[in-house]
Amino acid sequence: MKEPIRVAIVGWGNVGRGVYQAIKRNPDTELSCIFSRDPARIINEFREKGLNFEVNRIRRSDSELDALAVQGSNWVDVAVLCGGSATDLPVQGPYFAKFFNTVDSFDTHSDIPKYLEAMTQSTGKERLAVCCAGWDPGTFSIERIMALSFLPEGKPYTFWGPGVSQGHSDAIRRVEGVADGIQYTVPIESALESVRKGENPELTTRGKHFRNCYVALKPEADPEIVRQTIAEMPKYFADYNTRVTFESPEQIAERKKAMPHGGFVMVSGETGRANKALIEYKNQWASNPEATGSILVACARANYRMHKEGVRGAITLADIPPIKYHPQERSEVIKTWM
């Protein structure tokens, strides 16, 4: 058996734990290193759970000395960046791309071109970064591109939910006065059905989804200021009907035990002599963080293979041949799955 791909996890939150679980399910990968702002917390967690991992491989994520030491120790083939898109990845991505091949799930759609430019500059001529590698952007992006290639005059629609959005949950937790929070995205059923019927409706952002935010406040927080700040947050909530409900920390913790999500990509169009056509792709995840973690690990494999083939810079899932993601070699994939 070939040597496993050595994967570093950067950030030990929900997605970081999801990547850890995915590594255990992919025998061609192994956890080689963990970077965190608080290494002591992870060391204690591993010891409490009886997990066997070398504590000297748990390093500070904000220490250039640690990054250089890990780079020099040749522990890491690909670093998977698990921070949030609101404030972590715009800094974390270009920083770690100076040292390692990386994979991340940056998901602020409107800022993707700017983020890719920053990552391209950081990777230089030595490293490869797979960016925006979740399921939207990510797998949903691929489906939109493919469906619109098959139906070039089609009308695309994307619906998210019902379920927990990690990026939006992270964004509300960054609001001043918020102790904890979680956000649910819910598609508007009548809009979904209209697309499925081939009615090709003109849908605004507000007409496709609404967002439910559940928030535990810090003692000194003003509820109305927090509510207004969330509802008016650009790129996250300002364009949606958003409801903010205040709950206790215990209630939020209970909600966070289950983090499902899903969604639909649809392209409605016609073929040939005005024959109606509908392409629909659906994701349904019982655990959003573990789903993202599974996608990130497959992208780490693709990164490793393509870097060995000489690919450099910053790319997306749409730039990667599907065979590169799969654990089997190309000949086996074609023989088994074509």
Could you walk me through the main structural features you see in this protein, from its secondary elements to its overall organization?
This protein has 338 residues and is an alpha/beta fold. The protein folds into 2 domains: 5-135 and 289-337, 3-Layer(aba) Sandwich (Rossmann fold), CATH 3.40.50; 139-287, Dihydrodipicolinate Reductase, domain 2 (2-Layer Sandwich), CATH 3.30.360.10. The protein contains 13 helices and 14 strands. The strands form 3 sheets. It has a 7-stranded parallel beta sheet, sandwiched between helices. α2 (39-48) links the parallel β2 and β3 (58-60). α1 packs across α12 (288-308) and α4 runs parallel beside α5 (112-123). The radius of gyration is 21 Å and the shape is globular. The two termini are 25 Å apart. The mean pLDDT is 96.
Short description:
This protein is of the alpha/beta class. The chain has helices at residues 14-24, 39-48, 64-73, 89-96, 112-123, 139-150, 166-173, 189-196, 205-208, 223-231, 249-255, 288-308, 330-337; strands spanning 5-10, 29-36, 58-60, 78-81, 102-104, 128-130, 155-160, 163-164, 178-187, 209-217, 241-246, 261-271, 275-285, 313-315.
